[in-house]
Amino acid sequence: MSLDLTDVSTPDCCATVVRESLDPAAAEQHARVFKALGDPTRLRLLSIVAAHDGAEACVCDLTEPVGLAQATVSHHLKVLVDAGLLTRSQRGKWGYYALVPGALDQVARSLADVAPESLIPHG
Amino acid sequence: MSLDLTDVSTPDCCATVVRESLDPAAAEQHARVFKALGDPTRLRLLSIVAAHDGAEACVCDLTEPVGLAQATVSHHLKVLVDAGLLTRSQRGKWGYYALVPGALDQVARSLADVAPESLIPHG
DNA sequence: ACAACGTATCGACACTTCTCGATGGCTGGC
DNA sequence: GCCAGCCATCGAGAAGTGTCGATACGTTGT
């Protein structure tokens, strides 16, 4: 960890830094959500839930369209819940999954956290 | 593919479908970009690049801040290039990585593709 | 030509993730 | 109380991912 202060030569490749970059903790946090979104099956599940009335659907509505085993769908739904994108609620015999209001907006905002000046501000 | 039309009983759990959901091809496409964003190191690399003047930085600016081996950083940068988020250009001895203009906006828009009604429209 | 430097690629390893069949817990109807 | 249906969890196998040291490639300067 001891720095060699005798070498003060500036590497001649570097550009100017404009602002602070994302800190490691925030990066970890945001990456968790993006990782949850980084699977085509999970994106389809989110979309199917959102396409239902009230942004809510029961598992029986979700298993068939994605064409995977029930255990696999259940696993993906858990990942989405853990990422804070869906909530689960039991109503009688059926389990329902619903979009967390504003969760996807939060994701869009986290993009601005990564690279503010590269995004067009939302009126 | 033959449907059994003798069973017309509606399962009594299902909610009403409001619109079409994301098709598998689009899901795969979007998932590829989200997967690239789903790693804390890559988010930090993106952020560091964006934090430089002109949204461009050379590799020597990137290796040290993330605290990983040069080979690992190079690997992550390749993933970001393959996802269409960065471009690479060689200038003399040094390689420069730059944000693809509008790429992150595209990502934000793909969120709207997944669940349109859950997002506040951008004025 | 040759040496020095910056960076990409290769090969290997540990670890995670996706997928499934089987099992178990919970609910509602008989 | 028992059975049937919905769904989460378990265990396992195959595939993918993150990381590194070593090496190869291209550029610059001598």
UniProtKB/TrEMBL annotation, chains A, B:
Top-level taxon: Bacteria
Residue ranges of domain HTH arsR-type in the record: 22-119
Pfam families in alphabetical order: HTH_5 (PF01022)
Keywords: DNA-binding, Transcription, Transcription regulation
Transcription regulation is among the record's keywords: yes
SMART domains: HTH_ARSR (SM00418)
Entry-linked PANTHER family: ARSENICAL RESISTANCE OPERON REPRESSOR (PTHR33154:SF18), TRANSCRIPTIONAL REGULATOR, ARSR FAMILY (PTHR33154)
Protein name: Transcriptional regulator, ArsR family protein
Species this chain originates from: Luteimicrobium album
